[in-house]
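I am writing to request your help with a piece of structural work I have in hand. Here, with my thanks, is the record as I have it:
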Amino acid sequence: MIIHNSDRLSYQLMDQSNAQDLFELDQNPEVMKYINGGTPSTMLDIENKLLPRMASYTNQDKGWGIWKTNDLQSKVYIGWILVRPMNFFSDNPQFNDLELGWRFKQESWGKGYATEAAKHIMHALIKNKSASQFSAIVETENTASIGIMKKLGMQFIKHDLHKDPLGDIYVDYYSLKV
């Protein structure tokens, strides 16, 4: 699956060669605030945790993976959009319910990039008949991401424990059936 450019952004499925981009994004404590409390990732975290996890769910034909997002005008990398089955790292992954997630550089915040990118990728996945539902998880305090979820048409489902091999956390679940 190829995701064509949107109005302001271009998209490319990330792989092992994007380790430096992933590392660079994770160096800002504000970017990491709702990921792990604000601790920047080390290159060892990227190489030993993030890249193997990403490789385990990346499927170009289905559009699963982490989509590198660049500003079309400047060609600068500004962040990424995650696409993978909900509960992928459990005994019961939801292959028709795709999780959307995002992480963007702080200097790109407030410009609508994350919403544009998530909406564009979601619509490409709908056209590709990749899912019947889209979901996202968020810490209750992360109002900016909740705003993006609402702009995508997602609605609050529940507050519950999200289980993950990297650590369990209570989050809000949002979802949209298509």
Q: What stands out?
A: The mean pLDDT is 97. Helices lie at 19-25, 29-36, 43-57, 113-127, 143-151.
